[in-house]
DNA sequence: CTGGCTATCCTTAGGCA
DNA sequence: ATGCCTAAGGATAGCCA
């Protein structure tokens, strides 16, 4: 954009990169805001800026209200994870592991005093 | 944009809203991708679509890899919260309270046997 | 709905003060 | 760094097939 096309790769010149960082950070959050308003949906953007010497990392979010950000993350964690269960392997395995853990816990509980019968069985 | 300006408010017509939803969702994630590549930063977008009858909520993220999304959320939780300590009131007060509590604890400890000198002073 | 098309508006890279 | 300016390229609302 601007005066001349930009190849889609990391901007080498640090000064240009920082300027573009600030400009596009603003543009991205603006788009998120418009998207949310126009379409009436929850949209959340989290930006973790470049590491700078003697500065904490620049953090920017949309919405700016961290309570809102957390709310959307929580919705994502529950509804999003649910939605993607069959697509995302790690979630799948996490869910399966939990199920197995719960089963084991239940067994342990109901088997008090029956330990002998479990000799040689890994529980 | 497009043919004519758009007022920044919820699009009433449901059909138009859905079309715009899909178009802008694509645009937003593209911007996030470009931003990440050009500037070499962690950027994460979470979109929770409109509720539809007989459909689970449409969830879209950038990056599409949920492991990456979680990594960025975790970075945000740790570094982000840290960064905003001085901006976010709840964090600010939490931090201040802790500091005061620590001071009080320290005082109490070092003043064993000197209680009389604190008579009338709230500690 | 799904996928182009395009007139218009928007974003922004590079300059400059 | 900090903030405007502007030309070019990008995004997209409304249409149409």
TrEMBL record, chains A, B:
Localisation per UniProt entry: Nucleus
Residues of the MADS-box domain: 1-61
GO biological process: positive regulation of transcription by RNA polymerase II
One of the record's GO cellular component terms: nucleus
One of the record's GO molecular function terms: DNA-binding transcription factor activity, RNA polymerase II-specific
InterPro entries: SRF-like_MADS-box, TF_MADSbox, TF_MADSbox_sf
Organism lineage string: Eukaryota, Viridiplantae, Streptophyta, Embryophyta, Tracheophyta
Protein name: MADS BOX PROTEIN
